[in-house]
Amino acid sequence: MQYTRVPLQSLSLNTAAERMVSLNVAQINVSGHLLKVILPEGKNNAKVILHNLAGYKLFDAVMHDNQQEYDLSAYPAGTYILSVITDSGKESKLIRL
Questions:
Q1: Residue 36's closest CA among 22, 15, 24?
Q2: What is the pTM of this model?
Q3: How many CA atoms lie within 13 A of 96 on its CB side?
Q4: Residues 48, 81: contact at Cβ < 8 Å?
Q5: For 56-95, what is each residue's pLDDT tens digit?
Q6: Torsions phi, psi of 9, nearest 5?
Q7: By the 8 A CB rule, do 13 and 94 touch?
Q8: Cα separation of 15 and 59, whole Å?
Q9: Interatomic CA distance for residues 73 and 8, integer angstroms
Q10: Collapsed DSSP state (helix, strand, coil) of residue 79
Q11: How many CB atoms sit inside 10 A of residue 17's CB?
Q12: 3-state SS class at 48
């Protein structure tokens, strides 16, 4: 049986140098434990969900403006899965706090 090695870079993990991420449905900015989500012009509704790597939902919020900041200081430093859902679709991204 052969296995294919997937480079860690293909997971799109944010590094300290890469904190601003553009998704098709939103722009994400992580600064320390502060998460900023910016929706495209004309979009005002979205759902933001944060999961840990084990798949447990830790946080969810509904956006009613095109920009919102979230304080995630209640969660320890580490890697998380951030999902943004809009009427345009859903995207998920690995982020590091």
A1: 22
A2: 0.74
A3: 9
A4: no
A5: 999 999 999 989 999 999 999 999 999 998 888 888 888 9
A6: -60, -30
A7: yes
A8: 22
A9: 26
A10: strand
A11: 5
A12: strand
User: Which tokens is 8 given?
Assistant: 């860690």
Model confidence pLDDT, tens digit, residues 22-58 = 567 788 888 888 999 988 888 888 999 999 999 999 9
Supply 86's token pair.
Answer: 């809009």
- For the domain made up of 8-96, the CATH class stated in words is mainly beta
Tokens representing 40 are 């495209």
> Tokens representing 14?
């944010």
User: Structure tokens of 36?
Assistant: 């900023």
- Six-digit token string for 64: 């009613």
Decide if 67 contacts 36 (C-beta within 8 A).
Answer: yes
Task: Determine the Cα–Cα distance for residues 39 and 54; give it in Å rounded to an integer.
Answer: 27
Sequential DSSP letters for 82-95: EEEEETTEEEEEEE
Q: Which two tokens stand for residue 65?
A: 């403006």
Q: State the DSSP H helix or E strand holding residue 80, giving kind and residue range, or none if neither.
A: strand 79-86
